[in-house]
Amino acid sequence: MDVISAAGAWLIAALVLGIAELAVPGVFLVFLAIAAAVTGAAVFVLPDLPVAAQLGAFAVWSAVTVLIGKRWYRDYPVEGGDPMLNDRSARLVGQVVLVETALVGGHGRVLVGDGSWPARGDDAAVGTQVRITAVVDGAVMVELL
């Protein structure tokens, strides 16, 4: 295999891995793409590099780039846009809702959006506005406004 085709193969592999990184979730293939690009550059510089050495270089550079990436993401974590995105209960805290079934003896139901939730709190009549303070065991804890 001549130098151009061997180096070109590594650079094409880098390009394919880079495109695959865009198509699949997560951040991992980009590190392999960088390793393939470095290996391709090494084959240009060292044209007599045997295939076994090329694969070894790719393995070493893959490990190096993954470790650098791991350290980078540990030192500079990616912040999400909404920390409570998948925590429906936490999103309810602070909402003002209406009592659907009177709270008597500390138990009743409130309207939350288009649904009805069991509620616990001070006694309140139907139609009273209350604020959700917490969610415990599937029931919302409410307080009078």
UniProtKB/TrEMBL annotation:
<feature type="transmembrane region" description="Helical">
    <location>
        <begin position="51"/>
        <end position="69"/>
    </location>
</feature>
<dbReference type="InterPro" id="IPR012340">
    <property type="entry name" value="NA-bd_OB-fold"/>
</dbReference>
<dbReference type="GO" id="GO:0005886">
    <property type="term" value="C:plasma membrane"/>
</dbReference>
<dbReference type="Pfam" id="PF01957">
    <property type="entry name" value="NfeD"/>
</dbReference>
<feature type="domain" description="NfeD-like C-terminal">
    <location>
        <begin position="90"/>
        <end position="143"/>
    </location>
</feature>
<feature type="transmembrane region" description="Helical">
    <location>
        <begin position="12"/>
        <end position="45"/>
    </location>
</feature>
<keyword id="KW-0812">Transmembrane</keyword>
<protein>
    <recommendedName>
        <fullName>NfeD-like C-terminal domain-containing protein</fullName>
    </recommendedName>
</protein>
<dbReference type="InterPro" id="IPR002810">
    <property type="entry name" value="NfeD-like_C"/>
</dbReference>
<keyword id="KW-1133">Transmembrane helix</keyword>
<dbReference type="InterPro" id="IPR052165">
    <property type="entry name" value="Membrane_assoc_protease"/>
</dbReference>
<keyword id="KW-0472">Membrane</keyword>
